[in-house]
């Protein structure tokens, strides 16, 4: 005779004081437990790399200033330009460089930024390079 033979065939006990737990709640008891909630995201954030900002100087700065003056004078034509610029990272030091080709909406020389047609704001300080037909026409012609 086995150890549990006396009770193995008895009906399951149902408490008269405590209601039975719904099946969905019972299932929740067995879901995985994440003791370090958010830790995975934090590791991904730490592993994400950023670039360092390099300010233009010398001849590049002069050329960039000249192109910004051309844009200021011709902004009413809404020229198509390609801008290579730095975007600071919102969460950590550094950022990344990106290239955007878009029409100029307007330029604010006081606040020192370009507003593109898609409402992207690019600060003069972060611009590394400007390209476009408008510069060839004004500089060459």
Beta strand count: 5
Major sheet, described briefly?
A: 5 strands, antiparallel
- Overall mean pLDDT score? 89
The CATH class of the domain at 59-140, by name, is Mainly Beta
Determine the CATH topology of the domain at 59-140. SH3 type barrels
SS-derived structural category: alpha+beta
N/C terminus separation = 107 Å
Instruction: List the strand order in the largest sheet.
Output: 4-3-2-1-5
Protein name: YolD-like protein
Organism: Anaerobutyricum hallii
Report on the architecture of this protein.
- By secondary structure, the chain is an alpha+beta fold.
- It has a domain at 59-140: SH3 type barrels.
- The chain contains 4 helices and 5 strands, in the order H-H-H-E-E-E-E-E-H.
- Strands 4-3-2-1-5 form a 5-stranded antiparallel β-sheet, with helices on one face.
- The mean pLDDT is 89.
- This is YolD-like protein.
List the SSEs and their pairings.
Layout lengths: L22 H6 L10 H9 L11 H16 L5 E9 L6 E14 L4 E4 L4 E3 L3 E5 L1 H8 L1
Antiparallel strand pairs: 1-2, 1-5, 2-3, 3-4
Summarize this entry quickly.
The protein has 141 residues and is of the alpha+beta class. 28% of the residues lie in helices and 25% in strands. A five-stranded antiparallel β-sheet has the order 4-3-2-1-5, covered by helices on one side.
């Amino acid at each position: 005779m086995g150890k549990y033979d006396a009770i193995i065939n008895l009906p399951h006990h149902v408490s008269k004081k405590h209601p039975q737990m719904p099946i969905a709640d019972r299932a929740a008891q067995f879901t995985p437990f994440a003791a370090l909630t958010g830790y995975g995201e934090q590791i991904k954030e730490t592993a994400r790399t950023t670039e360092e900002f390099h300010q233009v100087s010398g001849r590049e700065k002069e050329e960039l200033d000249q192109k910004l003056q051309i844009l200021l004078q011709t902004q009413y034509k809404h020229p198509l330009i390609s801008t290579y610029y730095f975007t600071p990272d919102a969460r950590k030091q550094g950022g990344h460089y990106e290239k955007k080709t878009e029409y100029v909406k307007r330029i604010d020389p006081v606040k020192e930024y370009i507003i593109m047609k898609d409402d992207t704001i690019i600060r003069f300080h972060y611009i590394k390079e400007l390209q476009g037909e408008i510069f060839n026409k004004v500089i060459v012609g």
